[in-house]
Amino acid sequence: MPPNEDPKTTDSKSTRDTVQNVLRAEAAAIAQTADRIDDQVQQAVDLLFQCQGRAIITGMGKMGYIARKAAATFCSTGTPAVFLHPGEAAHGDLGIVTQGDVLLALSKSGETAEVNSVLPYMHRFDIPIVCLTGSPHSELARRSTVTIDVSVQSEADTIELAPTSSSTVALAMCDALAVALMQLRGFTREQFALFHPGGNLGRRLLATVENFMHSGHDLPVVQKTASLSEAIVIMSEKRLGAAIVADDEHRLEGILTDGDLRRTLERCKTPLSETVANWMSSEPTTIQAESLAVDAIKVMESKKITTLPVVDAEHRLVGAVHLHDLIRAGLV
Questions:
Q1: Between 13 and 228, residue with greater pLDDT
Q2: Average pLDDT, rounded, for the chain
Q3: So where are the chain's domains?
Q4: What is the pTM of this model?
Q5: What is the CATH number of domain 12-187?
Q6: Domain 209-328 class?
Q7: DSSP one-letter string for 39-83
Q8: Assign residue 92 a region: left if phi > 0, alpha if psi is -120 to 50, beta otherwise?
Q9: Taking the CB of residue 242, how many other CB atoms lie within 10 A of it?
Q10: Distance CA 96, CA 79 (A)
């Protein structure tokens, strides 16, 4: 920076307006694409769904980055896919393509030389081609089995040259294809978890209530003939914020939370010699040990409770799970 020259400053309102305009322009481009969906999309989904091999996804430049992301999304949602760099394809990488695959080619212009150079190989081995292009009359479109129109009226940048709206629409369309295939395959959360075993996502999707529940001597269990004072003692000892009421055969009969107890004593001045049966909730919300821990969180949040009794198929008490344990495990 030349001496005595002030650094450039930005106009916060102008910047905010620019950012909002770009977001609105790209959102509008996606909406316009959604409005012109036709039978070509159904044909594309059918080809990909019936594919006996993998989705080979290719693109160059910015569309190449979108293609890489699409391959990752397809793989993680039940559709085997691999990214093929079109520039490397002619130098040996075409070896990843086998009969039974489907090519998904991305090109804004439809005239990208590197992308179009792989088409003869696909035709030679009868590999179906699905293209996403902004030019439905381009060479790529003419030589494809199915063409999906992802054209945009204009890019979102101020000189209308940088791939912004066009790459966003292509990305959204790839996501839409992946979700449509998920739905056709009946892809479940458990299957998704198998592909994401690491990190917090894997823990959230794979962990069951059994992994976090308290059981045996750690349970604050009382019988319904116990007094409120006895319930208070067991609640203090076990620190789960509730006394769980069960009979001699461990069948769940009710629950008395510390909140229930405080409200009862405040409103009614109830003597502590009163039995638990008179003040417990006789139909507590429960969950089973094999349920996902994230489902237990949803139940507790919807019911505004922190302790959830865990029962077996015959409604016998086998444990209890506390919201704080799930929070400490990083599931919330």
A1: 228
A2: 89
A3: 12-187, 209-328
A4: 0.64
A5: 3.40.50.10490
A6: alpha beta
A7: HHHHHHHHHHHH-SS-EEEEE-THHHHHHHHHHHHHHHTT--EEE
A8: left
A9: 27
A10: 16
